[in-house]
Amino acid sequence: MKDDGLMLLKDYTTITDPSQYPDDLFSSAFVICQFQACYLVGFNNWRLRWEIPAGKREPKEAPTESVLQTAIRELCEETHQTAQHLTLCGIATIFDEDKKETRNRAVCAGDISQPTPFIFHKGDEMDKIKFVPSQDLNTINIDPVDLAIVRQFEKHVNIQWRDNL
What is the residue-averaged pLDDT of the chain? Predict the structure, then answer.
């Protein structure tokens, strides 16, 4: 799946044992969160489309930050939400056509037991959030690579993990 000709989802790998994957394998974290069987998405006011929360690891700012800490930070920064049971559950291999490089994005998943009201602050990347049922993700202007990652997650998600939410 391509993203405006700039990004391409090359592969998705399910992780059953997160301890086997060192943090330095990942350049960023992608955070799939659900509330009442709906996915959390934010409207990115810079790209003018809906996105799943995600962001880069910042080794210069936080050299000891784990990929799960990156996921927690990005989720909070972008959507002002906090997830429970956040787990590293997959690797999305992305090809950046502009930079001609391949990167591994950690796919983390968790649930939101009670959403926090979203209040936009100047400088926020997202200007609103909503929770969308899986079948309706195709009907919103969502980033195509984000949608492809969610669909791969749905195909390969560990049933035990899903049952624990």
Answer: 89
